[in-house]
Design brief:
By secondary structure, the protein is α/β, with parallel strands linked by helices. The protein is built from 18 helices and 28 strands. Its EC number is 2.7.7.4, 2.7.1.25.
Length: 647
């Protein structure tokens, strides 16, 4: 026997190891998170669980003892929080900043626990941890009771589909293990959470620091007869029937390495599938059958939720990333308008009418909050009227997407019913959403096919449609230049129309003020009107301050390629204030007018406009000459119409 064979035999798993590994695979898995307010003891509790379930090696324990002397907050005792507060910044500040995930197991169950921050500014991190959890441990400092952040985290847990709560009344030792304190906190929490839809709420008095009622029963709480924390975690019945849900397969990409193979790759979100099963393309309704299930190790006889596979179909159906293969007997909803819960993360408020990027498991499209129905008060769950959502606030919204998406209500499927919102300028994730249901209006409204289109209308006018979008500060000269520009075009026989900011506010937008939310809606309406006018074959001249980059980009994306021409009328603030044609700057600087652009409301200058007019020291006529020169250089004034819709 060679040395290689001897070593291989010695390293091969024994029967006992095989049995142990097989037993571990058969154990159920519980995902849970700890949440609550600052300093309630979340990290300490997880560290205690890891220690008491023998998940810490001797060298780790020695390192923890050293770290406790250096960073700890528990005197001479071991600071178990340091096991999960891994970042140096966390240890220096004594708080949790990021989400820390840890795995541990007991003889009865396996666990993945997420330790989430308690500070309000890290609410987005808490929502991340809650998104995959089955149970939440809501910690409450027995000395403090139910706090605002306790309520906020409980509401977010409810919105994110968590139905099981352990109410951990921690630091019970610091109130003398007083049952009256415990009972009062439990009653306060039950009163607050009665409408949150939790299936179970199990209150436990505990001391994470000393281990009372964590893994072992405390002799200091003889008045308590309920389970210890670990007993509740081991026995709580959570819904693990995701495999029994209708089949959902979000397509991540089309795998076509050669002409002989075409498969659809992705991870099964729910349900199961086998060769021969009928499947339907969610958005088109086209049906086919599964021919093969291809995996890294070869073809499979069946695949279920959580498995990453490639499906090969019998037919050459059209399907791409963002679509779903689904069960024909239980199809998802496909709509471009729906209601949703929103948890807002960004320091810049959510503004109805502003365009964001909406991203689901695999799909992506432009989306707008068309109506903020109400904000949820985290103190009493009351529904409050609101025009925007500030950072860490929660609200119920109606959302409209540029193209339809396939989804299930979040309450039915947490994977296909969730989405995030992304800022179009910064690409930052600004909100998380949970779809409630499609709007009936979306089911009743369909695109009507028309025989006379933009091409025909433009040909009749012997021109190509365009939208010249003039932006700049009040007093920059936008309206004057736009007016002269239209006169020039009109004199050459062009069919034009000006949408001027002041004029539109006398009619279409007379109900809008000058808050950020109203400014966003102002531009959204004007952009839609400009699109309709361009569709009629007109050359549209829009003269609006339009201070926000996001709304100008939204307007651009409404138009066909090359049809939107941004004209930046660049006049310095000091010159605009000196001109002050309407006397508005003087009043704004004196505090008589609020939300005035350039004074106490920002103006986001274009970074790459098609036309940049620097007006200082030049007349309006010279600016129009510069416009004409730009047009002539690019043959924009030519009569021929590009059938692609561009200029």
């Amino acid at each position: 026997m060679t040395m290689r064979h001897i070593m291989a035999k010695s390293l091969a798993p024994t029967d006992g190891v095989r049995e142990y590994l097989a037993a571990q695979e058969k154990k159920s898995l519980l995902r849970f998170l700890t949440c609550g307010s600052v300093d309630d003891g979340k990290s300490t509790l997880i560290g205690r669980l890891l220690s008491d379930t023998k998940q810490i090696f001797e060298d780790q324990l020695a390192a923890l003892e050293r770290d406790s002397r250096k960073h700890g907050t528990t005197g001479d005792d071991i600071d178990f929080a340091l096991l999960v507060d891994g970042l140096e910044a966390e240890r220096e500040q004594g708080i949790t900043i990021d989400v820390a995930y840890r795995f541990f197991a007991t003889p009865k169950r396996k666990f993945i626990v997420a330790d989430t921050p308690g500070h309000e500014q890290y609410t987005r991190n808490m929502a991340t941890g809650a998104s995959t959890a089955d149970l939440a441990i809501v910690l409450i400092d027995a000395r403090q009771g139910v706090l605002r952040q306790t309520r906020r985290h409980s509401i977010i847990a409810s919105l994110l589909g968590i139905r099981h709560i352990v109410l951990a009344v921690n630091k019970i030792d610091l109130v003398g293990f007083d049952q009256a304190v415990f009972d009062r906190i439990v009653e306060d929490y039950r009163q607050f959470s009665r409408d949150l839809g939790f299936q179970t709420i199990v209150p436990i008095p505990m001391s994470a620091r000393y281990g009372d009622n964590v893994t072992g029963r405390s002799d200091k709480t003889e008045w308590y007869s309920g389970p210890t924390l670990i007993e509740q975690l081991e026995t709580v019945s959570v819904d693990e029937a995701v495999v029994e849900l209708p089949f959902r397969f979000p397509v991540q990409y089309v795998n076509r390495p050669n002409l002989d193979f075409r498969g659809f790759a992705g991870t099964i979100a729910s349900g199961s599938v086998a060769p021969g099963d009928e499947v339907v393309v969610a958005k088109s309704g086209k049906s086919s059958r599964v021919k093969r299930i291809v995996s890294y190790g070869g073809d499979l006889a069946q695949a279920a939720a959580g498995q990453a596979v490639t499906l090969v179909l019998d037919d050459e159906v059209e399907i791409s990333r963002g679509n779903m293969l689904v069960s024909p007997a239980a199809r998802p909803q496909v709509a471009d308008q729906f209601a949703a819960n929103i948890v807002w993360f960004d320091e810049h408020a959510l503004l109805p009418g502003r365009s964001y990027i909406l991203r689901t498991e695999t799909d992506q499209t432009s989306a707008t909050v068309t109506d903020l129905k109400y904000r949820i008060n985290v103190n009493d769950f009351a529904h409050e009227a609101a025009k925007s959502l500030e950072m860490n606030e929660v609200g119920i919204c109606n959302i409209s997407t540029r193209t339809p998406i396939a989804f299930d209500p979040f309450a039915e499927n947490r994977i296909t019913g969730a989405f995030i919102l992304i800022d179009r300028i910064s690409n930052a994730t600004v909100g998380a959403g949970m779809i409630l249901h499609s709007l009936r209006r979306a089911e009743n409204i369909h695109w009507q096919s028309l025989d006379v289109g933009k091409h025909v209308r433009a040909d009749m006018k012997n021109q190509r449609p365009a939208v010249f979008w003039f932006t700049g500060l009040s007093g920059s000269g936008k309206s004057t230049i736009a007016n002269l520009f239209e006169k020039k075009l009109f004199a050459t026989g062009r069919h034009t129309y000006i949408l001027d900011g002041d004029n539109v506010r006398h009619g279409l937008n007379r109900d809008l003020g000058f808050t950020d939310a109203d400014r966003v809606e102002n531009i959204r309406r004007v952009a839609e009107v400009a699109r309709l006018m361009a569709d009629a074959g007109l050359i549209v001249i829009v003269s609006f301050i339009s201070p926000f980059s996001a709304e100008r980009r939204m307007a651009r994306e409404l138009m066909a390629d090359g049809e939107f021409i941004e004209v930046f009328v660049d006049t310095p603030f000091e010159e605009c204030a000196r001109r002050d044609p309407k006397g508005l700057y003087a009043r704004a600087l004196n505090g008589e007018i609020k939300n005035f652009t350039g004074v106490d409301s920002p103006y986001e200058a274009p970074e790459n406009p098609e036309i940049h007019l620097k007006t200082l020291g030049k007349s309006a006529e010279e600016m129009v000459d510069a416009l004409e020169h730009w047009l002539n250089e690019r043959d924009i004034a030519e009569d021929q119409y590009d059938s692609g819709g561009g200029i």
